[in-house]
């Protein structure tokens, strides 16, 4: 059942990414043609934006494919973190291919020679078509994130902050930026037509570049944290600690560490003070039973390591306090 849900989630993420990629490729061609016809810096910046988004989808598809590999001898915990690496490259792509190009076009227009606008109606038509296509992709991404949030019993925005799957989040963020960028491009072309000054076109292009740089920063920060090794969601950590503490053989949970090793895959390391009356065989059976119960109750838990320790160990206590601060 767990594998089924994971397969369905991956299928939904793949559909979201493929749909976004197809839309972005078509939109990039339209924007490029409109930019060349009108000479609009904002339209050319938006063409660069869509090219960057298309490259992003290719990187996300690679992330989905590589992260699905099974564990092997060289990677005993699997390839789940590959999704974070390729998603980080996607954020870099948004910045390099989209933001830098848009900023270059914008500043070149603002500080360069004035440019005459031609056929602005072409830009308006392309922007309208692009907005409609981007809206389809955005709605699919939003539905995907909403389904994930419901499955995790979180609100939409809490899930965006805590989600360990960067693929659908990346598509949602870039599609949101794309819709905002289209409005900025529309404003730039419109102001250029009304005032006759190409400066407005350049300002819109700069604004698009800043927007893309901000989105790239948000996605880069998220994926960097996941690559470094982020703990599981707080509600899962609390549930794991409560389950361990409730075991009849346990006197106290001394330390509990978790780390995301992939989407819906959590590594759990617990240091537990067991009842001193337990024999070696009883201790072994207790560890096996507790690990099995944790995996059964929480499908995201992939690996469990339980270490018996005395709670009076001062060196261990100092390490725990250094990590979390004084505990209640």
UniProtKB/TrEMBL annotation:
Superkingdom in the source lineage:
Bacteria
What UniProt keywords are attached to this protein's entry?
A: Membrane, Transmembrane, Transmembrane helix, Transport
Q: Where in the cell does this protein reside?
A: Membrane
Q: Which residues form the Cation efflux protein transmembrane domain?
A: 18-227
Transmembrane segments in this chain: where?
Answer: 12-34, 84-102, 122-139, 171-190, 202-220
| Gene Ontology MF term list | monoatomic cation transmembrane transporter activity
Asked whether the keyword Cell wall biogenesis/degradation is assigned, the reply is: no
User: Which Pfam families does this one have?
Assistant: Cation_efflux
One GO BP annotation is: zinc ion transport
GO CC term (a single one): membrane
* Residues in coiled coil: none
Q: Does the record carry Membrane as a key word?
A: yes
Q: How does it sit in the membrane?
A: Multi-pass membrane protein
Matching PANTHER family = HUEL-CATION TRANSPORTER, PROTON-COUPLED ZINC ANTIPORTER SLC30A9, MITOCHONDRIAL
Query: What protein name is recorded for this chain?
Result: Cation diffusion facilitator transporter
Organism of provenance: Actinokineospora fastidiosa
């Amino acid at each position: 059942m767990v594998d089924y849900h994971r397969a369905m989630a991956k299928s939904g993420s793949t559909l979201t990414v493929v749909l976004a990629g197809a839309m972005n490729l078509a939109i990039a061609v339209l924007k490029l043609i409109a930019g060349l016809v009108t000479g609009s810096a904002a339209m050319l910046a938006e063409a660069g934006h869509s090219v960057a988004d298309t490259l992003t989808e290719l990187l996300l598809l690679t992330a989905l494919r590589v992260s699905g590999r099974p564990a092997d001898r060289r990677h005993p915990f699997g390839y789940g973190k590959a999704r974070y690496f390729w998603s980080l490259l996607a954020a870099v792509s948004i910045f390099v291919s989209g933001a830098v190009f848009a900023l270059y076009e914008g500043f070149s227009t603002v500080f360069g020679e004035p440019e005459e606008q031609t056929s602005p109606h072409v830009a308006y038509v392309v922007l309208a078509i692009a907005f409609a296509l981007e809206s389809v992709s955005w709605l699919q991404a939003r539905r995907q994130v909403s389904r994930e949030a419901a499955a995790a019993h979180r609100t939409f925005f809490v899930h965006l902050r805590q989600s360990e799957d960067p693929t659908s989040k990346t598509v949602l963020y870039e599609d949101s930026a794309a819709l905002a960028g289209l409005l900025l491009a529309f404003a730039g072309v419109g102001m250029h037509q009304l005032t006759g000054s190409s400066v407005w076109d350049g300002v819109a292009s700069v604004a698009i570049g800043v927007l893309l740089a901000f989105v790239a920063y948000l996605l880069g920060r998220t994926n960097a944290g996941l690559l470094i090794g982020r703990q599981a969601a707080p509600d899962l950590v609390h549930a794991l600690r409560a389950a361990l503490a409730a075991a009849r053989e346990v006197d106290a949970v001394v330390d509990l560490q978790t780390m995301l090793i992939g989407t819906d895959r959590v590594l759990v390391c617990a240091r537990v003070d067991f009842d001193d009356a337990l024999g070696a065989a009883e201790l072994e059976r207790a560890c096996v039973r507790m690990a099995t119960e944790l995996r059964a109750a929480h499908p995201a838990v992939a690996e469990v390591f339980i270490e018996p320790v005395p709670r009076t160990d001062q060196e261990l206590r100092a390490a725990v306090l250094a990590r979390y601060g004084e505990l209640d």
